[in-house]
Amino acid sequence: MSSPTNEKAEKAHAETGDYVDSEAHREKSDAVMTAAEIDEQFGITPEDHKRIIRHVDRRLVLTVGAMYCVSLMDRTNLGAANIAGMSLDLQLAADPSTDRYSIISLVFFTTYIVFQPPSTVLVRKIGPRLHLAVITILWGSCMIGMGFVKNWTAMAGLRILLGILEAGFFPSCVYLLSTWYTRYEVGKRNSVFYMVGCVASAFAGILAYGIMQMRGLAGLNGWRWIFIIEGILTVLLGIAGYWLLVDFPDSMRQTWAFLGERERDWICARVHADRGDVKAQPFSMKKYLGAGMDPKIWAYAMIFFNTTTVTYALAYFLPLILTGNMGFTVAEAQCLIAPPYALAGIVMYGTSWVGDKYHIRGPIILFNMLLVIIGLPIMGFHPNAAVRYFGVFLTAAGANSNVPAAMSYQANNIRGQWKRAFCSATFVAFGGIGGIAGSLVFRAIDYPSYKPGLYACIATTLLNMVIVGVLTLEHWRLNRAADRGERELESEEDGFQPGFRYTY
Fold first, then answer.
1. Which candidate, 232, 305, 310, places its Cα nearest to that of 70?
2. Is 148 helix (H, G, I), strand (E, B) or coil?
3. Domains detected in the chain
4. Which stretches make up the Major facilitator superfamily (MFS) profile domain (predicted)?
5. What angle do CA 67, 72, 75 make, to 5 degrees?
6. For residue 275, what are the contacts with CB-CB under 8 A and spacing of at least 6?
7. Which residues fall within 8 angstroms of residue 14, CB to CB, at 6 or more apart?
């Protein structure tokens, strides 16, 4: 038997198609439907529940994960190309006063950061299928062009263009995933999304080594073929992505029988009951930018900045560290990149599973940062190369596992579609700034020890621990105030959801 509140919600949905009941906004004492009530209302059995979520996982998480794989490969394959002959052909070391490799690494992030905020608005307007597929095809074409550049300035120019095209991808994926899952389902999905991309792209070193053997074919050096072949793969995946990707669950643009209307309505109802923001409010620049007044948004963004400083530093410079600092050959270095990222995938999924099961986020970040703070000194300062390589395992596992952990932390504690859109954009933009920092911390003049870069990564890791500690105290303070009835953790823009509490 449906409660009066449920009947009102059903009537409002029938009349407006919106899950937010205007009367419920005024009467804060109304109860939110439970998961069992929602299942009963839509006639969803436990078997149906598992089947629908598995179907969404396959079509959404695996597709965006595969596309993110080529995104990571395409932005971080400079390290493999550099030791495969690009440095010599483009004369990256010709001018000792200019670190040309760092320049072509970091210019990507200038446009990557600037063009992210409009992306989360654009993806809502035109839909993720078209948006993500088109930009993937375009940046794949840009990658192919990199295989034919004649000088380092042309490479830098194409990297700037690549930043524009890739800017919309990651924040749109984070936003899209958050609209399909409840708060304590999204952790594992974020980890699988990032894990598929991270682990698969880690094997790009082995792929790059294989492609390098094409050296001389059509008169092109091996590093050029790395860009050409990987660019072609990106274009093909972008084309496939248009047919495989899904739109937002509340979208009317669904053009194929991915889910029935009843199933989509059930998805929307359960997400709304969990978070209260399944439907986007009409766009308002004031509301969108006004989200920036919440200091917690910038704290989440700083966590991501500190995390990506380490992950990008590893991505761009690990091949150089393995060959220079640890003495491995080019072939060995290309192959030794993959195992630490395989461990990262295991840690990533395991910690996300624990976070979803026990409804915790901050402790997961602290655990990941502990791995990094142990791994970095071993990687940088132990006299034995094999032990230093073990330090790479801990550092890569902790830093990369922290990416989905940080994504889930902010996703669980942000409500309101446009606030969520703004948060996704600033969150990933700060990740891009971390990419700039990661491109600069390991300087050519510090080769082969790179000690200043190691100190910088240690500092960002410690700062993450401090920020999580401060946020935990603030969340505890606000939750306690809500428990005492002194305040409600909601607003008209966020949607009516009495009983919401921040996740520690």
1. 232
2. coil
3. 52-248+294-483 (1.20.1250.20)
4. 60-477
5. 125
6. 182, 183, 415, 495, 497, 500
7. none
